Amino acid sequence: MAGRNGETKKRILVIDDEEGIRELLVDALELQGYHVLTASNGKTGLIIAQEDLPDLILLDYYLFDINGGTLHIKLKEDPRTQDIPVITMSAKEKKDDNVLQTFTEHLGGLHIKKDSDITKPFDMPLLFRRIREKLDSACIAKQPCISNGKSGAFLKTNGFPSNDTARIIEEGIFKLDTELRVLTISGKIKEEINFTQKPCQFKIFRSLMQKAHQAVSFPTLAHETIEDPNDIPNPRSTQRQVERLRETLGPWGAYITTIEGAGVVLKPPKRPR
Q1: pLDDT grade, residue 83 (50/70/90)?
Q2: Which residue in 2, 145, 183, 213 could disulfide with 163, CB within 3.0 to 4.6 Å?
Q3: Is 61 helix (H, G, I), strand (E, B) or coil?
Q4: Other Cβ atoms closer than 10 A to 265
């Protein structure tokens, strides 16, 4: 299923036993350019997920035939579906922390981030943002590393998401050693910037290098910079760190630009010949 620009449409599976909710989500998501699959109960949803392997699942936590937490467990325990990102949905008045706690314990401590849960009635802009963030994260995780013979040793991004296990990431005049946390800039005069004492700035710059020429939202950057998975990401704090990163880069900080409503993009110039 191709989109308007010829790229493959991302497929989202909606599992909800309320017909009105399914129809609402189908209409809204198709307008956003997604291909939408639907299931009216948990058992059917599990079968569709296992057979069609969607890119993301919107899962109602309070299904009629099977508890959404139980279904989520089945998805995570199945090798075919364990890497599919899931956003859970629940009515505000039905929110039950005990159900979520039981789910976390059953999975042996698997952490379900707070922003994985969307309440009904939907805040559509928030839902769309969460979907984009989940799909972006899944895309990065799935990208194979382009190697020079040593797996995960060297990578040229060419503007596409890359595997963050690569030691060397190159984009234009920038060459980032992710192990030493040193950035080499190949301009008229070769310079180096050491991020050893600036861990948050390093993570932000690494993420921007991995997605060079693409806008990365502040919430996405905030998720990628937290140390403890139990911490709540702070996009405002991340915005301040981006400003500090620009200062650290000096004149090269100008290649990091902010796009209103989209996030931050790194556009390094080509390497001089």
Answers
A1: confident
A2: 145
A3: coil
A4: 17
CB 118 within 8 Å of CB 88: yes
User: What sections of the chain are H helices per DSSP?
Assistant: 19-31, 42-52, 68-77, 97-106, 124-142, 199-210, 218-225, 235-249
Nearest one of 98, 117, 252 to 172, comparing CA atoms: 252
- pLDDT confidence band for 79 (50 / 70 / 90): confident
| Residue spans of alpha helices (H) in 7-56 | 19-31, 42-52
> pTM for the full model?
0.49
CB 8 within 8 A of CB 54: no
pLDDT digits (tens, 9 = 90+) for 94-137: 444 444 444 444 444 444 443 357 888 778 888 888 888 888 77
Beta bridge partners, 67, equal 62
Q: What residues have CB less than 8 Å from 181, skipping those under 6 apart?
A: 194, 195, 196, 202
Question: In the beta sheet, which residues pair with residue 155?
Answer: 169
Burial 15-52 (b: 16+ CB within 10 A, else e): bbbeeebbebbbeebeeeebbbbbbbbbeebbebbeee
List the 11-15 sheet strands across, edge first.
35-39, 11-15, 56-60, 86-91, 117-120
CA–CA gap between residue 249 and residue 193 (Å, rounded): 7
Q: Which two tokens stand for residue 50?
A: 């296992």
CA distance 221 to 213: 15
